[in-house]
Each structure stands twice: as C-alpha cells, then as structure tokens.
Amino acid sequence: MTALSGIRACVFDAYGTLFDFASAATRCPGIPEHKRVALTTLWRDKQLQYTWLRSLQDRYVDFWQVTAEALDFALESLDLRDAALREQLLQLYQTLQAFPEVADTLRQLRAAGFRTAILSNGTPAMLDAAIRASGLQGLFDAVLSVESVRVFKTHPKVYAYALQQLGLPAGQVSFQSSNGWDAYAASAFGMRVVWCNRYGQRPEQLPGAPDHVIRNLAELPALLAPIAT
Hints:
With 229 residues, the chain is of the alpha/beta class. It contains 8 helices and 8 strands; from the N terminus they run ββααααβαβαβαβαββ.
C-alpha cells in the first residue's frame, strides 16, 4: 500500500467520523429498544437531506436547527413525539461519544508532527461540547465550522475554507470522513482523502475517489509518510 506523502495536516469530519451519532439514542432510556436503530437512521438521514436541500435553496440555518427539525420529523414518523423525550435527545446529541480509537489516533498524529483539525457542518458550540464531552481538548489545531461560509457540505466553499484557515494547498491535506459523499466531494475538490468506511458503505458513483479506504481511524497513522524535515 502506497503511503500518502507530502501531507502536513489531517482534517476530520466530525459526526460519524470522530463522534458516534448513534450514541444519543443508545443512551436514551425513553426510546423503546426496538425503535432505537430506526430513530438513529431516520434522524441522521433527514438531517443530511435538510442540509443538502437548504444549500440548494440558499436557505441556510445553523446545524443545530437542522438537527432539531430532523429529530422532530423522526419522532413524529415513529410515533415517539414527546416534548421531554425530544429535549433529552437533543441534550444527548450535544455530548456524543467519540469512537474508541479517536483520542489515541489524534495523539499519534500530533506526535508525528501532523496538524489536526475538524471541518464540520456542526456549529462551534456543538463541536466544542462534543470535544469536551469526549475529553479531546487540546488535540486540534483548528475546529472549523461551516457557520463561517453559511453553506453545508458538499459545497466547494466548505473545503476551500479549510485550506484558507490552514494556509495549505489541497495536496498537503489529508481529509478523513466516514461519509462517502463527503469523502468523494473532498477528493473531487483536490484534497487527499482517506474514507473511514465504518458502516460498510458501497463506493459512491460521484466525482472523485478516496486515496485509501479504512475501517476505523486507528489505521490512519500507518498510511501517512513521515513529514520531511
């Protein structure tokens, strides 16, 4: 396997890549066990659909509003509509759990001299809460939100914003996402891409192609050639 050479920074998607979006429903005792998977899936699917549709309509609102509106759709669809349950799920979403390998992977990358950053649809407040809840403070050089460009992934402005903030060309950035659509879009933009295919998704039929596909982020450090001194 050919290592990615010339990489200076590793940029990560947040939800599904660093933080387990399923951990909100799994920690909520008010949801019947037989509906937890369905709720997680529908909530996530509708959340993403709303970001894409709002971007196409040029009707941006922040990701917290999108997340709440997607939850309302999912709860009503599954006959779980309840104000207290809604509030509990939204609180749990702010403290999503990181995947087990995330902290160690970040420490390895930083020890090897790579800069680390998040590039996410999430608001700054959402990302700060998730980082604190997972004990990942101090492990990122930058936490970048689409709030600054007011359009969601996969708009090219989002990936360009990351490069501007890092002061690096696309070829020196390795972008990691568990979302196939996000990985392919970043590749089409020009970034080097490692698709963290946690969920066994099929390859997308979209422009771009990941440089590597891994099952979890623990496999990432071995893919990166040492930084030239």
